[in-house]
Amino acid sequence: MTDKKSAAFRSILNPRPPVLVSCRGRDGRNNALAVVYACNCSFDPPMVMVGIVPSRFSYGIIKETGVFVANLVPESLREAWQYLGSRSGRDGDKLAALGLRLGEGVKVRAPVLLDCPVSIECTVTDSIRTGSHEMFIGKVEYVHADADLVDGDGKIDWSAVDFLRV
Question: Does residue 128 sit in helix, strand or coil?
């Protein structure tokens, strides 16, 4: 039998993959932040949940607009993910600083990060304050995926994506 030792509570379950949550303020200003607390939370209707610390700049934008895009991050965007997770949108346009390509949401008024292989447009249906984070529950409105990942039935080949591991 393997010996056991007490471990720290912080981030015991780290969902995969991490995401970049993008949003747009009512003033038209785009922003994105790195999020590790993200997961499916319903299949019917399809919903996802993202956890955001209330002190983050994007938190206020999402609370006000009620929409966000969860962009799944490939390993090739590691530096961008770290940058977006370590700087505040209050201090400047992080997306412009990185030169990330942006598209428009089809169903929600928020930017889609085109360099991410999958982007999930969501409308907030509820939120739960869990302590350090507020978990925003988003109804999936539209899913963007790189064409080479989608089969004839619209299913995504997840094995073809080299997701960021943190």
Answer: strand
* Residues ≥6 apart with Cβ < 8 Å to 24: 30, 31, 61, 65, 109, 110, 111
pTM listed for this prediction: 0.93
Letter for the amino acid at 127?
S
User: Encoding tokens for residue 32?
Assistant: 């994105």
The residue ranges of every structural domain in the chain are: 19-158
111/105 Cα distance (integer angstroms): 6
CATH number of 19-158: 2.30.110.10
Close Cβ partners of 163 (under 8 Å, ≥ 6 residues apart): 16, 17, 72, 73, 74, 75
pLDDT tens for residues 118-160? Answer: 999 999 999 999 999 999 999 999 999 999 999 999 999 999 9
- Helix, strand, or coil here: 13? coil
Beta bridge partners of 41: none
